[in-house]
Specification:
By secondary structure, the chain is an alpha/beta fold. 28% of the residues lie in helices and 29% in strands. The chain has a single domain, classed as Dihydrofolate Reductase, subunit A, CATH 3.40.430.10.
């Protein structure tokens, strides 16, 4: 059985790229929550850009991030790409049509970032749960989580707020 969970950082105005704005609000509550998200995952499901960014950063972060970094570096990664040819960092590239390849995967799959992949999988009704951290910041510009034309009705299943004002919401397709 396959279950796909997308975990995203967004600003109040929906920007999700380069979340340096999250730093002042990231605390032990969010760290523990992110740790739990990773622990329940069997593998990561990533778009090319996020994969390349993670692959460049995480191998050097293991010492400072402990078991979280060890899990990030050692777990399998399934990557949606048409341009990369040499998988590294415990990765495999999804063959053929991405939706069909994802349907063939098993286990609990975690998506972090990967906005284009999230939008694509949303349009194909393949994401089972959206866990979104909404930071009390307005960026005014930048890539939005939801691309034009992406439509989905969602049902709120959980909501809580950190001491730093980050609203953490969980939605499932309605």
């Amino acid at each position: 059985m396959r279950r796909i969970v997308a975990v995203e950082y967004v600003t109040l105005d929906g920007v999700f790229e380069n979340p340096a704005w999250s730093g002042p609000y990231f605390n032990e509550e969010l760290s523990g929550w992110q740790d739990a998200n990773l622990r329940e995952a069997d593998a990561l499901l990533l778009g090319r850009k996020t994969y390349e960014g993670f692959k460049a950063a995480w191998p050097q972060m293991e010492e400072q991030t402990g078991h979280f970094g060890v899990k990030m570096n050692s777990m399998p990664k399934h990557v949606a790409t048409t341009t990369l040819t040499e998988p590294e960092w415990n990765a495999s590239f999804l063959p053929g049509e991405v939706a069909d390849a994802v349907k063939g995967l098993e286990g609990n799959l975690l998506i972090n970032g990967s906005g284009s992949l999230v939008n694509y999988l949303t349009r194909h009704n393949l994401i089972d749960e959206y866990r979104i951290m909404i930071f009390p910041v307005v960026e005014g510009e930048g890539a939005r989580l939801w691309e034009a034309g992406t439509r989905i009705a969602l049902k709120l299943t959980d909501s809580w707020k950190t001491a730093t004002g980050v609203e953490v919401v969980t939605y499932v397709p309605a």
